[in-house]
Amino acid sequence: MSDWTEITDAAALVEVLGEPNERARAKERTALTGIDRAWLAASPFCLLSTAAADGTCDVSPKGDPAGGLVHVLDETTIAIAERPGNRRADGYRNILTNPHVGLIFLIPGRGDTLRVNGRARLASDAPFFDELVVKGHRPQLAVVVEIEQVFFHCSKAFLRSRLWEPEAWDPDGGVPRRAVIAAELEPSGRTVAELDEYYGPGYAEGLYAQC
Question: For the whole model, what pTM was predicted?
Answer without folding.
Answer: 0.92
